[in-house]
C-alpha cells in the first residue's frame, strides 16, 4: 500500500515549481511555470488524494530556489526518490542519468553503454522522455549523437533544455556551501517579493490543506 502523497508548489525566479511524493521519496517534480494552477494540474495527475504540505522536503525547496537564483547547486543523489512504478529498464536509465553531474553532459548512446545496453540509445531516449523527476534526475544533460541537442519532453521543449544548460554553465561546476544556498535563497525571496510572487495565498495553501499526515 502506497504511503500518503504530499505535495508542495513554491515560487522561484523562473516560476512556480512543484514536487510530490511520500515519506518514501519524491515521485514527481514539475519544472517552473508561470501559473500555479497549471503546475498543480500537471503535478497531481493520477494523485487525486494528495495533500498540500508547505514544509514537504524543505531542504530540497531551498536547493531549488537557490538553483534558479544561479547558485551552484548539484542535487544530491541522497535525495530519496521513488521509481517503483517504472519498469526495470526505465529505472536503470534514470538512475544512471542521475549520476551526470552539474556542468557535464552525456549522449543517449553513452548512457546506453553505462547500463550495459549499447544498442539501446533510442530506448534510452524514450525512457528519459518519461522522466518523472526533472532536475532531480537531470535528463536535460543528455544529448543526441555528436552532441546535438536532442529532444526534451517537458513544457518548453528544446528551448527550455538550452536555457537550463546555459544556466548551469553560468553557475559553474562543483557542490555549493550551505551558506551559498542560504544567500541565494534569501536573494531569491527578495526578488520574488518585488515581483509580487510572495505573500499571495493560493486557495489550497491554508491550514485545512496544509496537512502533516
Short description:
By secondary structure, the protein is an alpha/beta fold. It has helices at residues 36-43, 58-68, 88-97, 108-114, 121-129, 157-171, 178-195, and strands spanning 6-12, 15-22, 25-33, 51-52, 106-107, 142-143. It folds into 2 domains: 6-75, Double Stranded RNA Binding Domain, CATH 3.30.160; 88-171, Winged helix-like DNA-binding domain superfamily/Winged helix DNA-binding domain (Arc Repressor Mutant, subunit A).
Q: If you had to describe this structure to a student in words, what would you say it looks like?
A:
By secondary structure, the chain is an alpha/beta fold. It folds into two domains: 6-75, Methylated DNA-protein cysteine methyltransferase domain (Double Stranded RNA Binding Domain, 2-Layer Sandwich), CATH 3.30.160; 88-171, Orthogonal Bundle (Arc Repressor Mutant, subunit A). Helix content is 37%, strand content 14%. Strands 3-2-1-4 form a four-stranded mixed beta sheet. Strands 5-6 form a two-stranded parallel sheet. A hairpin with a 2-residue loop joins strand 2 (15-22) and strand 3 (25-33). Helix 2 (58-68) packs across helix 7 (178-195) and helix 4 (108-114) crosses helix 5.
Q: Estimate the mean pLDDT confidence.
A: 85
End-to-end C-alpha gap: 16 Å
Q: How many beta-strand runs?
A: 6
Number of domains: 2
Order of helices and strands: EEEHEHHEHHEHH
- Spatial strand sequence of the major β-sheet: 3-2-1-4
> Which overall shape is indicated by the principal axes computed on the Cα atoms?
globular
Low-confidence stretches: 173-181, 205-209
* Structural class by SSE content: alpha/beta
Percent of residues in helices comes to 25-40%
Q: Helical stretch count?
A: 7
CATH architecture label of the largest domain:
Orthogonal Bundle
The Rg value, from CA coordinates, equals 17 Å
CATH fold call of the largest domain: Arc Repressor Mutant, subunit A
The major sheet is characterized as:
4 strands, mixed
Strand content: 5-15%
CATH level 1 class label of the largest domain: Mainly Alpha
CATH superfamily of the largest domain: Winged helix-like DNA-binding domain superfamily/Winged helix DNA-binding domain
